[in-house]
Amino acid sequence: MKTELNEARLIAEIDLDRLPRHIAVIMDGNGRWAKKRRLPRIAGHRAGIKAVRQVAEACLRLGVPYLTLYAFSVENWKRPESEVKMLMDLLREYLGREIGELNRQNIRLRVIGRTHELPRLVQRDLDRALRETAKNTGMILTFALNYGARAELTDAVRELVDRARRNGEAFDIDEQTVTSHLYTREMPDPDLLIRTSGELRVSNFLLWQIAYSEIWVTDTLWPDFSQLDLFNAVLEYQKRERRYGGLTENAAAKGASKG
Ligand code: FPP
Hints:
- Helix content is 49%, strand content 13%.
- By secondary structure, the protein is of the alpha/beta class.
- The radius of gyration is 20 Å and the shape is globular.
- The termini are far apart.
């Protein structure tokens, strides 16, 4: 009851006309959450699924159109084989259970990353989830899986070089050309990047796309992340002044009156 009141109070403070269009999240701290409770690491990952539901629900309630979650990085293969296997099993379990709920909420699922390198059964379940939610027109929920920003940029360069070789002709490359060869080509850049569990790193996540994103870091461990945390992050985002390397309106006006 108290949580609901707090949520309602925070939502009322949010300016719905200035919402971030795209929120990206580095979900970190599952292992620490489990360690604090003397549980195996996988219990932390499992508890992390609850937070995935919370953050999606909070974005839906506000009307944020794009949410992207960093679920498995290209570097995560370095973890013990047993943990990697359990993460993959957990992902399959999530997909198996959640498609109905995603459809009910009109959420379209997407994935970014080198998904062709994931275990075959994971790929099969992913394909099914993408197909079965493809017609949904509400929020786009993207999982970054076997994702690395350097890998993404490498893939984009490779595609461009292949195209040049095939066509045997030179073509101009500008920022738009690069953007249109990234995995994220169909989505806007994130306005807000959230990282949980206090680390001040971007960990090879959407490096090109977060060039002008606002970054919000919380000490909360991912499994404890709640809708309240998301609302607080959006409020904090709305307090920031985004300048994209330019001047604020006031500073620009002062400069103009001087000239
Ligand atoms: C980081 O915590 C989290 C991950 C590497 C995986 C994220 C996975 C989930 C939230 C659960 C499953 C997700 C889906 C999409 C079904 P960590 O293990 O690095 O934590 P630590 O830094 O405290 O050890």
